[in-house]
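Fold sample X.
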Amino acid sequence: ATEVVRGSTVFTTHTPVEAGIERFPKDMMEHYFTSFVKKTGMSWSQFWELGRTEGGEEKSFFMTNLAFRTAHKSNAVSHVHEEVSKRMWYDVWKGFNISDIPIGHITNGIHTMSYIGERMKALFDTYLGPEWRNNITDPEVWEKVPDIPDSLLWDTRYELKQKLLNFLREYLSTHWLKYGYTKTWREEFFSKINPAALMIGFARRFAPYKRADMLFYDLDRLDRILNNPTRPVHIIFAGKAHPNDEMGKGIIKRVIDVCRDERFRGKIFFIEDYNIDVARRLVQGVDVWLNTPRRPYEASGTSGQKVVANGVLNVSISDGWWCEGFDGTNGWTIGPVVKGYSPERMNVDEDDGQSLYAVLENSVIPTFYNREISGLPEKWISMIKKSIQTLMPKFSTERMLLEYYHTMYLPTAEREHELYMSSHKMARELADWKRKIPTRFSSLRLLDVSIEGIHGDTVFVDQPLTVNARIDPGKVEPGEILVELVIGKKDGYEFASTPDCVPLHVTEKTPDGILIYSTEYIVKYNGPYLYGVRVLPYHKNLAAKQETGLILWA
């Protein structure tokens, strides 16, 4: 039954945040699942193994472990999230290299037509042709974006901003009545709203790792930024916290307190009762979209994808989808630019806060306010066009679903069909083999490995390495094992990149039954290398070589 379930299951892991990883204590699992496990025919230990993790929480049942162990294919939701997930869930495939962990990625995308403003749709219809609506993933469609006149694009952006400000005035007037703010106070507040100001938007779930209050790290510096008489800036916040998230609710309170600070009255706004209507107005009307997660906890993020079609530029921490989206011309990155896994840094909040202020002061605000002879911010408009050109075809649900279909759902459906057509005989045979192989595999011995052509851990480019391994197969048939050389450039105690995995083949069998496996490898780069030879159980019906969890290294 486990093989049948595995053959028809795809699992997508969605968050590296601890609060989103469900686990249950052993006594609770026993209370609710003892009778269920008996009905399945499994022993309790077999069932527990599906959700077990090593280390300090062996008495907890992890739902994520269960999903990984019973899925044909698994994926994360961005490239960097794949790298993070492989390290998080390494124990499920203990003994394998990080690069071997069978978690891929399909980066999240958004339904573009649900968030793009009507004026932008009309502009695209005119200059890209109406066929753009059905060809969002085609890069050629977006090659026409530079043809849009700067003045028309800027006028459209101004109209969208005006719609947002009109909504903001009406919304705040209605809500402030119930809080007892006087008419005089409201009029004074609204008089400070400048429709020509740079408008920054931040709207999402107020989880602590998203750091909605990063802008408040240095309020005096923020005061100078927002209240510059020649380059004013406004900020609009919106969002909700989980009812049980006290830290998240505390961040919302901080935002509201700062909104009420006399220095920021009419400069910072918080919209209550966040919903999809508010979200659409914000992603269409602001000039800049701010994203400040604590790396590496942003699995993907999609709010910044929703602003692109509306000509809004992203200012974001390098995490989630932005690691793939940012190219240096289509927005700004706060802090270091990261393309893959990057460990958490010390003092990260302080460093990122300082970087955010610097990006705003030295790049974002000057670019927005710098006007050419035409009276237009031509560099800003050029960045808008670059953002639309480079990001629109990459981050749509159409692209995302096609990737899921071809790389996840279709192969899994084919596997399920294969199992079904054999009346699940294949599943029963594979399950029986998996039950027996651990005992037999434990009798195998990797006697020794010899590598000719390597000096210490250093090799030279184009130099051939000859690798031999002597193996006593014990009770395992030669056809039931894979022998592989794993070799790659060294970075500390890890591979610098995905290593090469080269199969060894039987070249000799000694009279006493010892098998000699051999291969030759041509070195690609000079310098220090990591390498090893490993043996894994093999069955023709395994979906992945990591499935058994058994591995022997030398």
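Fold sample Y, listed below.
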Amino acid sequence: IMLSSLTQRGADAAMKALYLGAVDFISKPSGAMEINNTANEIIRKIKIAAATRHRLKKQVVQPIAQRIKPIKTTVNAKDALGNLVLIGTSTGGPRALHEVIPKLPGELEAADLVVQHMPSGFTRSLAERLDRLSALRVKEAKNGEPILRGCVYIAPGDFHLKVKRLGDLSNPRLRVNLTQDPLVSGHRPSVDAMIDSVVKEFWSKIVTVIMTGMGQDGAKGTDWVKNKGGKVIAEDSSTCIVYGMPRAVIETGNADRVLPLQNIANAITKMVL
């Protein structure tokens, strides 16, 4: 578990540590009022780390620089939206995202929306790191920007990632709608909040992926995805750092595929065809 400052350098170091095997990080308290909250957070995350230690030993990950060649693509505003891939994850998520997103092809016929439970100040560093390694363009979502095929939008910390539709259902165009509405399923950003917004505004193909994390955020949302004819992938317990969110999805009966982390990118690619 890493204790990180809210500076850009601190955020970059935290993202690197998470990729290399750290279970989680805690942002340094900014004042005396936050010390008690931070102490409780440290205790909670130590307990999580203790429960997941055996999983970390099983995972051997090659350095990204040796495994994936960075590719740059240019996305123009005229590109059609295509389909949507919704990804939700929490504890262990940055490492999982490093395994999935760089494996997605640059010509993927979809836009990708990602909710990673993470405090404000760290998601931009995560997006920048993934962008350097991916054929898709990866960025921290900005309010009001168009959602385009070939782009991955990561929810900023402390903001729900929602969408607004422009045009009619036969030719949907979506824009990012960031809100600080109350917590949903105990989180902001919330996977359930993202899914709820998408299924109300978007009627083309939706693929939802729920990966490692504690709790049940996203499980309720997969009910809505299935009701709209979408597909659901849940990460298998064998590769989860914390088998909470995927298990909750599997228990609903909504998972079309239950896959180890290394097989998820290929499944996404096939499902959006």
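Sample Y note: The first strand starts at residue 2 and ends at 4.
Also: The chain has a mean pLDDT of 85.
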